[in-house]
Design goal:
GO terms for molecular function: potassium ion transmembrane transporter activity. This is Trk system potassium uptake protein TrkA. Keywords: Ion transport, NAD, Potassium, Potassium transport, Transport. By secondary structure, the chain is of the alpha/beta class. It has four domains: 2-121, NAD(P)-binding Rossmann-like Domain (Rossmann fold, 3-Layer(aba) Sandwich), CATH 3.40.50; 140-220, Alpha-Beta Plaits; 227-321, 3-Layer(aba) Sandwich (Rossmann fold), CATH 3.40.50; 360-445, Alpha-Beta Plaits (2-Layer Sandwich). Helices cover 30% and strands 26% of the residues. It is built from 15 helices and 22 strands. It has a six-stranded parallel beta sheet with strand order 3-2-1-4-5-6, sandwiched between helices. Strands 14-13-12-15-16-17 form a six-stranded parallel beta sheet, with helices on both faces. It has a five-stranded antiparallel beta sheet with strand order 7-8-11-9-10. Strand 2 (25-30), helix 2 and strand 3 form a beta-alpha-beta unit. Helix 6 (123-136) packs across helix 9 and helix 6 crosses helix 14 (348-357). The protein is globular.
Length: 446
């Protein structure tokens, strides 16, 4: 499969790293010679020091034979133009990164499709959705919904109050129980558990359940005393913060701390009048106390500096805040941030790459999420009529090692999967894949 990436920084370099491990034919276009040299040293791919809006450069890169053309430069106009040109040259699918949320509106999708742009992505919007999902459930590290929550995956850090520790999973999570443990992150290891495995203190456990049983999960993991989030404090007033505030549920009150006075004035113009914008440094403990940090249930650090965000969240936790969210743009810091127990970690590169990756798959697949801390991916596949996965009960499918079927949605109703479950064409099937390229699973669903 041939993939062309326009843009060698941030998202582009992460995608190159991700795809080069899976034998894709990758070409990267950029005018940053140093960035291209670094990618050439580290990965097996072709680089071109050329402008992505040059017709000749696109031809030389092989746009006519590209299965996917990805434009993720810092220039929104260049991304849109390059995708239109690549499509005209013969690229099968194109995706452009944009910086204006207006371009992501449903009404404009047909318009961009006519231009030859199959999808537009606004990373700040994707990150904001993850932030809001995290705030809605203060006791959960990660949440992933299928069909508006008919089926839910919850990543939960297990602490002393958990009542299901140190028991074989076959005794606490059988076919008739309302949840499955699809994976366990323990220290540096990810475990795809069997019936004889058990949960340990401080594990990050991934539960698959249905909407009705979320309160039950909360009880058995000992998180009922966690206060629901009503007051939120955000450090950093960038675009991700703006999108998160605009998506905030009405029952949440939010304060934004921003160091730059001019940006504060802009935020007062952009945000609703009931959002309080404060000119100050979110690392200033006296300011935090003055602004009510001790009565705040959630602290969200969204500055451009990962170290600042991590330290700010650690400070907020020391001051009694239960729920903290840190934006960590350096992928290498993500695991470290998790190990420091700061709470939910947001990385726009990983979130955006998850969205783009599903365009590489031929089958009906949706909602791919990369879970770097677990070295795993989660995806929602829809099997075709007569596909291999529909021919036998789950226990007889011979699934590859590292693969777990967490559950499925049938006729708009979520259900868990046991060994006797017979998957049907049209089901939405949730797959948890540890150290396996999702591309290799397509054969089961075609």
């Amino acid at each position: 499969m041939k993939v062309i990436i326009a843009g060698a920084s941030a998202i582009g370099s992460y995608l190159a790293k991700l795809l080069s491990r899976n034998d894709y034919d990758i070409t990267i276009l950029d005018e940053d010679e140093a960035a291209l040299e670094q990618l050439n040293r580290d990965y097996d791919l072709l680089t071109l020091d050329r402008k992505c809006t040059s017709p000749r450069a696109l031809r030389d890169a092989g746009a006519a034979k590209a299965d996917l053309f990805i434009a993720v430069t810092a220039d929104q106009t260049a991304n849109l133009t390059a995708c239109t040109m690549a499509h005209a040259l013969g690229a099968k699918k194109t995706v452009a990164k944009v910086d204006d949320p207006e371009y992501t509106e449903q009404i404009d999708k047909a318009f961009f499709k006519e231009m030859g742009i199959d999808s537009v992505i606004y990373p700040e919007m994707l990150a904001a959705k993850d932030i809001i999902n995290g705030l809605k459930m203060s006791w959960v590290r990660q949440r992933w919904d299928v069909h508006n929550g008919e089926l839910v995956m919850l990543g939960i850090k297990l602490r002393e109050g958990c009542e299901i520790l140190n028991q074989p999973l076959k005794d606490i999570s059988g076919p008739d129980d309302p949840y499955h443990i699809v994976a366990i992150k323990r220290g540096a290891d990810t475990i795809i558990p069997g019936g004889n495995d058990s949960l340990k203190l401080y594990d990050l456990a991934y539960f698959m359940t249905t909407r009705n049983y979320i309160p039950y999960i909360r009880k058995i993991v000992g998180k009922e005393h966690y206060a629901d989030v009503k007051n939120v404090m955000i450090m950093g007033g960038g675009n991700t913060a703006v999108r998160a505030v605009k998506m905030m549920p009405e029952y949440m009150n939010v304060k934004v701390l921003e160091k730059n006075k001019n940006r504060c004035e802009e935020l007062n113009e952009i945000l609703d009048e009931d959002t309080l914008v404060i000119n100050g440094d979110g690392r200033d403990m006296s300011l935090l106390v003055e602004e009510g940090i001790r009565n705040t249930q959630a602290f969200v650090a969204l500055t451009p500096n990962a170290e600042t965000n991590i330290l700010a969240c650690l400070t907020a936790k020391r001051m009694g805040v239960r729920k903290t969210v840190a934006m960590v743009e350096n992928v290498d810091y993500v695991s470290m941030a998790e190990s420091l127990d700061i709470g939910t970690v947001i990385n726009k590169k990983i979130t955006t790459a998850s969205y783009i990756y599903q365009m590489l798959l031929d089958t009906n697949v949706y909602n791919i999420r990369f879970l770097p801390t677990a070295d795993a991916d989660v995806a929602e596949f829809i099997p075709a009529e007569g596909s291999k996965i529909t021919r036998k009960p789950v226990k007889d499918l011979g699934l590859p090692t590292g693969i777990t079927i967490g559950g499925l949605v049938r006729d708009e109703k979520g259900m868990l999967v046991s060994g006797n479950t017979q998957i049907q064409a049209g089901d939405s099937v949730v797959i948890f894949a540890h150290k396996m390229d999702l591309k290799n699973l397509e054969r089961l669903f075609k």
